């Protein structure tokens, strides 16, 4: 009788099995895709997650990602979600593991994945009928036939011999593998995760083999552009195998100047162009660089045949108003001919990077330069005594009141027909947002508020009065600052008023208040959120040292309320523990619309105006990135609201910076100071900024054709009896008053 063979595989068998399994895994990759923009977080009983903002293109291998997710259950596979290299599908063995991974990891930085903030949704299974249909757009053979201003195509820009030399040159260089194509970067690396260039890392001069092309470009006919656009310093070489295309996109506005040149080599392709109707392109052009997936009914499409050796120039309208893309086809129809794509097409895309000196995300060296310049140029300005909500400047007497608290709130007053013109749409979405610094109890000491009635400073009376104000305001969103006792008091009480909340506490140990956004789930569904910590502006290695120093200075600070350490040290100066929070909400009725709401509290001290400015810049850079992510992931144009206590008055550097993206170029301060997103203050564009106490708090919104403020919360006149003297008082439980606005969103 034969022996029963052992079932335990040998080591070599194990290795082979593993290899076979990975092969099988690759071959049978399930067709899971990202959920459609209208399906919210996807199918919540799915075992598959769609994870954005991580992948090989940002240096995170599928194995590393799988290891992090396997902490929540058995991971059956990690697959690219698309060709971007920054989105993956995680396939769990069961839906419970998927759900708990989503709940634990989504919307917060993941320390084991380079601190990237993951955006996770349940994935959906793609049905076979949804596979790509080859839509036909008539293909033009010449650039001028397309009739797109700023687009030029020059055939035979290089000779066949030069083409071979260029291909040979890049083939000696290492390729970076993306999901479906390979790339090389010269000058600066283009980072697919952020859709930006890493200006910290100059890779060097452009290689000598492109010099003849650069020379020839300078002789390009029709060139009448700003010479800055033509000092090309970035080259991306793309290699597409047959059938592989490129998704619709507009090259990143904030990363690249106007003129973009693309040389086709080795094989032809069809490049398609699409844009929204003329009335909307201005709006999208001001946003950062999103992949646009518009409603096809309002979109014009054109197609151009790019023969090998031709050079394409996209500039002006062609560069900013039209998305360009290469359909993923193996066969293209050009006029009446059927053209098979060659096994390989290589393109050289040449661009000029934009250099932002004051971008706080740039190199620390530049930050310090900015820092010193600002210090030299900007003298601290005292807050005028009329702005009484700045605690440090409160010196005037008020009458004492001892009666029980009787909170008062203003009414929403219509501003339709005010500066913003359009007529109200009957089927628009309307919602209200209130911003309110509720004054953390930790700051409420009678020594700091000597003129307020002592009874109204007590936590119990004040907290209940605040709740009563919030209840009376009946708004859809609250952006609250200086929220302490979030878990023990506000969250629960707001829940019983029908609100859900998200919260970020200040960093550091000393001050325990933070920023909260409360929203009505009946109005808006929370999709994803991100934390903003302004201590990110610090040079990380040095934080340790400053922390050590902290203990010694603690006592001194407590007495003065100020930081007695060396404020010339940027590490000390920038470490203010201030925070913000931003979130994307989906409003479902009467139609789907995504709204991004950000809430923050910037540093208070007028003497540290440069620090506040650095915080404001960091805030807008994060908001712009978040907006790009949301537009891209949810295929939408979100509206953008930013509220908070900015501790700045109109005309301050912070205020001027925040609205600089909206002003006409002639009005902007200096070119490098322009904010990456257009923002304007809702009070300013309607009734004017309030004359009174709240001139530190603002609600900004990003103007577009489809959002307009329809009412604002009235503020009392300075002489109104309920505000005469000092806040807090019996009618106002904080030293700030709530500000608010109602917005109307019309269908895009
Ligand atoms: O391959 C091409 O010709 C276009 C490449 C492109 O659009 C890009 O790199 O942004
Ligand atoms: Fe492009």
From TrEMBL:
Residues 231-354 form the Fe2OG dioxygenase domain. Pfam families: 2OG-FeII_Oxy_2, Exo_endo_phos. Residues 35-46 have a biased composition (Low complexity). Residues 47-125 form the RRM domain. Keywords: RNA-binding. The keyword Repressor does not apply. The keyword RNA-binding applies. InterPro entries: AlkB-like, AlkB-like_sf, CCR4/nocturin_mRNA_transcr, Endo/exonu/phosph_ase_sf, Endo/exonuclease/phosphatase, Nucleotide-bd_a/b_plait_sf, Oxoglu/Fe-dep_dioxygenase_dom, RBD_domain_sf. Residues 10-23 have a biased composition (Basic and acidic residues). Residues 1-46, 543-568 are annotated as: Disordered. Signal peptide: none annotated. PANTHER family: CARBON CATABOLITE REPRESSOR PROTEIN 4, CARBON CATABOLITE REPRESSOR PROTEIN 4 HOMOLOG 4-RELATED. Belongs to the alkB family. This is Uncharacterized protein. It comes from Brassica napus (Rape).
